Amino acid sequence: MKFLIVGAGGIGCYYGARLLEAGHQVTFVARGAHLERMQRHGLKVVHEDLHFNRAVDAQAMTPLMQQHACAEYDLIMLALKSGATSDWLTLAADWLNRAETPVLSLQNGVDNEPMIAAALGNARTLGGLAVRIGGHIIAPGHIEAKGPAQIVMGHWPQQAESNTALEALAQTLNAAHIPARITPDIRYELWKKLLINNGVNPLSNGVNPLSALTGLDTRSLTADPVLGRTVYAMMQETAIAARADDVSLSEADIDDMFALISQFDAIKTSMLVDREKGRPLELDEISGAVIDRCQRQGCHATQTELIRCLLQLEVRPVQWRPLTA
């Protein structure tokens, strides 16, 4: 198969390396120093079960659209930050609309698939999530990843019956040592992942209401008796928010996801890495989605609102001045 991976960060590069190792064709869309390094010196991906270091096809989006038709690709894997989805759909609109190539979103949040479906239609929209993987650019052209790196995917918004093309894709991914499974209800799976993302990502970014705690990984965060309770409360708020999308998350779902993140190997969350590198945080796409949907239902996501507020204050610090007579 021929894959186009848009957003060649830690997640996209890891999956692309796996596909290349399995003999597929992969083009990576990147930018800046990371793109330049890949074009000149190739891509290096280090994982406990993979050591990849070779030349790759890496391009910027605009030149790629000028030189290649969308129809040349069997699948577009979208691994951009969620805040970039709308801009990419606008930039690539004409190019995308000349083909029927499906787009598989492997992004944080629950709002990417609706945007893709609005632009391209439900038939071309595959919802997806990368599960139990930590992957980051540690230097231009150099990726470190860890974890089983599973993919859960499904047709948007639901899949009533089996689909031969999707089943073939799952077989292709599994054969490339990317554990993949198909779900008939991808919205439910996306909201289940948001339980973790909203509960852990903002807090492990290093801000806590009661202390100057910074840089905690997921395991350290959930093991702390106070912060662990805060994480669980934010997960409960996420479950309430999901009802606005007609998704029902039970207390058992919350318990399962809390146990999962508590037992998973300690990783740096994407927000923590973004903060360390001075990049924009996915606050609106993760915490904002929970806050907005709770408000639609006439309630408040109190813990999530507080953590987002503190993070925003940290990003845009206010200068303190003493009170003078």
UniProtKB/TrEMBL annotation:
<dbReference type="InterPro" id="IPR008927">
    <property type="entry name" value="6-PGluconate_DH-like_C_sf"/>
</dbReference>
<comment type="pathway">
    <text>Cofactor biosynthesis; (R)-pantothenate biosynthesis; (R)-pantoate from 3-methyl-2-oxobutanoate: step 2/2.</text>
</comment>
<dbReference type="InterPro" id="IPR013752">
    <property type="entry name" value="KPA_reductase"/>
</dbReference>
<dbReference type="InterPro" id="IPR013332">
    <property type="entry name" value="KPR_N"/>
</dbReference>
<dbReference type="GO" id="GO:0008677">
    <property type="term" value="F:2-dehydropantoate 2-reductase activity"/>
</dbReference>
<protein>
    <recommendedName>
        <fullName>2-dehydropantoate 2-reductase</fullName>
        <ecNumber>1.1.1.169</ecNumber>
    </recommendedName>
</protein>
<dbReference type="InterPro" id="IPR051402">
    <property type="entry name" value="KPR-Related"/>
</dbReference>
<dbReference type="InterPro" id="IPR013328">
    <property type="entry name" value="6PGD_dom2"/>
</dbReference>
<feature type="domain" description="Ketopantoate reductase C-terminal">
    <location>
        <begin position="185"/>
        <end position="310"/>
    </location>
</feature>
<dbReference type="Pfam" id="PF02558">
    <property type="entry name" value="ApbA"/>
</dbReference>
<dbReference type="GO" id="GO:0005737">
    <property type="term" value="C:cytoplasm"/>
</dbReference>
<dbReference type="InterPro" id="IPR036291">
    <property type="entry name" value="NAD(P)-bd_dom_sf"/>
</dbReference>
<comment type="function">
    <text>Catalyzes the NADPH-dependent reduction of ketopantoate into pantoic acid.</text>
</comment>
<dbReference type="Pfam" id="PF08546">
    <property type="entry name" value="ApbA_C"/>
</dbReference>
<keyword id="KW-0521">NADP</keyword>
<feature type="domain" description="Ketopantoate reductase N-terminal">
    <location>
        <begin position="4"/>
        <end position="157"/>
    </location>
</feature>
<dbReference type="InterPro" id="IPR003710">
    <property type="entry name" value="ApbA"/>
</dbReference>
<keyword id="KW-0566">Pantothenate biosynthesis</keyword>
<keyword id="KW-0560">Oxidoreductase</keyword>
<comment type="similarity">
    <text>Belongs to the ketopantoate reductase family.</text>
</comment>
<dbReference type="GO" id="GO:0015940">
    <property type="term" value="P:pantothenate biosynthetic process"/>
</dbReference>
